[in-house]
Amino acid sequence: MKKLLIYAVIFALPFGQFFMFNEKAAAQEEGSKSSIHCLTEGWSASLLTFVYTPVKLGVSLVGGVVGGVAYPLTGFNGDISRKIWEKSFCGTYVITEEILYGDEKFEPFLCCSCDDDDDS
What we know:
The chain has about 120 residues and is mostly helical. It has helices spanning about 1-30, 35-75, 80-90, 95-100, 110-120. It has one domain (about 1-120). It has five helices and no strands.
């Protein structure tokens, strides 16, 4: 089963990307999206999310443990632990079509409080 999944990802992603970007140019000329374009958009985003989300969840889990261990090791300095937790927990969990096309930023390690500081 693992081999089948690996082969599917290896072969589907390049072909999906090829069709997606060729169809994107054609759709922009016509002003509408074709059904092949919509299909490859969805498949590419789904396959990338299927691979990326478990990795991101693993990073979040490790970050949670490291932040918890860092708290007593730094003399109960909550700022250090909070920074570790924010970097590991915040960010992109799902790959969307907008991320694939560059309309949205892909930020796997987004700093949550950094966004709040910019608004002030």
